[in-house]
C-alpha cells in the first residue's frame, strides 16, 4: 500500500510536528509501508490554472503525481483565519475532481484554539468527499496547548494519531475487499 501525507502549509511548525508524529506511529504499526510525507514548505508549487495535472512540471508534477499514486492519504492542515491554508486548497485545485476515488483519507488539524474544531467538518471533509475520498470518520484535532518546544506533549493526541493510522489502514483494507468482490462479478 502506498501512503502519502501532506503537511499542508508553507509556514508554522505544528502541523509538520503532528504529521511527523503520525508518521512515527504509522511506521511502528506498518513498517513495510511504501510511504512519503510531503511538507508543502519544501516545494514550489504553481498555482492551479485549469490544466490537467499531468501537464505541470517540477515540484507541482511531483506532488500531484504522488497524491494520485497513493492508496492512503493523510492530510495535515493548520487553521488560518477559520479556514484551511490557500497552499493546501491549491493542491486540491491542481487535481482532477475524482482524484481521490478509491483512496482513504485521514485528517490531522492543528489550530490555535478549540474554536476552530469544526473547520475540518465544514471545509476539508466536503472537499475530500467531492473528490471521492473514503474519509476516516474521526480526525485528529490538536491545539496550541498540546505542543511545547516543537513536540506534541498531550498523550491523548499521541493515542488519537495511533488510532487514525489504524482506522485508515482498516478502512483501506475493507475498501480493497469491496473492490475485489465487485471486480470478481465481471467475467472479463
TrEMBL record:
GO terms for molecular function: oxidoreductase activity. It holds the Pfam family FMN_red. The keyword Oxidoreductase applies. Residues 1-143 form the NADPH-dependent FMN reductase-like domain. This is FMN reductase. Gene3D superfamilies: 3.40.50.360. It comes from the Bacteria. Keywords: Flavoprotein, FMN, Oxidoreductase. Coiled coil: none annotated.
